[in-house]
TrEMBL record:
Keywords: Isomerase, Metal-binding, Zinc
Cofactor(s) needed for function: Zn(2+)
Gene that produces this protein: manA
Designated name of the protein: mannose-6-phosphate isomerase
Binding positions for Zn(2+) per the UniProt entry: 99, 101, 136, 263
Organism: Phaeodactylibacter luteus
Catalytic activity: D-mannose 6-phosphate = D-fructose 6-phosphate
GO biological process: carbohydrate metabolic process; GDP-mannose biosynthetic process
Annotated Gene Ontology cellular component terms: cytosol
Amino acid sequence: MKNQVYLLEGVVQDYAWGGYDFIPELTGFPRSGQPAAEYWLGAHNRGEATVLIDGGKRPLGQLLRERPEWLGPKVVKGFAGELPFLFKVLDVREMLSIQSHPNKAQAKAGFARENQAGIPIDAPYRNFKDDNHKPEVMVALTDFWLLHGFRPALQLEAVLASREALWPVRELIASRGLPKAYEYLMACPQSEVDQLLLPLYRALSADPPSGRENPDFWAYRAFQQYTKGEGEGFDRGVFSVYLLNLVYVAPGQGIYQGAGIPHAYLEGANMELMANSDNVFRGGLTVKHIDVPELMNHLVFDPVAPKLIEGSEQGALQVFQTPAEDFELRRIQLGKASTYDTGSAKHIGIAIVLGGKVAVGEGQQFSRGQAFLWPAGTALKLRAIEAADLFWATLPG
């Protein structure tokens, strides 16, 4: 196969929680006045990237269906000839919803069940948009904060004991256990949610907290983001700010979200690589559909000790290893005039330049914010024209 790379143009998603500057400054796209929350580099039908080829632009998914050999044998055989991952840049300005994702068996069964029930694929109350799982790995580009997994019991007790306004929640967990208590908090009438959260709302409003390492800071922000004031109805996702681990991820560090792990991005910019799926179960901090029984069926209540991924270094290459077979996130950092050889690629690769400028393949050059694709079987030599920083999405092996 002729060694060739192709310029790839992604799609900006203008979700309300996104920032206004990071992605436009990275990509050079003009500011639209709308948030630029995510920049998608993949073949997902809700935001398909385009490939510059033969003097024109082609949708990535269409091109891969015509040229399945670009994907590599493993993808053709194991992933039905579809690009198995979605590569993104995220800029989180406002808190995202508490959410979890199914494993592959759950996704297949749930998707078939909702199809059989005749639920339209675009219905807002539909849970399964496809039959795939949705593991994710992210690497922080700026200081990044998120919620990730339920706290260990002793930590949870200490957090709830530290705020008198949370003692009723503490007593609920002590009497019912965490799973039953959480189910009650997710399903109880709005009037009870308001009754439980009103003392906390008043305490935080009277003395607004500072310091992002304090869950009070995020609870207060959640009240501001999702509540107009007393009597307007409090978002039950506020409970999860205290029940889940509050995690700081420094630039260059990563974290993996497996099936059933409740999580929520709170603030910052990151690179994210995930299986090509849109299956999400929400647990608050949202105006979208919450299906409590489905949420409960897809949550891991075992306590989680968050594990940050530093990336294994192999010279200029860092690999952020995870259990996922659908994707692998890599980073290449090159000093000026230095080079890196990828070797003959077993799988398709997509890269984005986060900084600097590189010459790739047959003399093509890519600068900050530009993305490119190379087919399986391609061997690339990268040369840094300026000190360069690239993230690379592919598959393990």
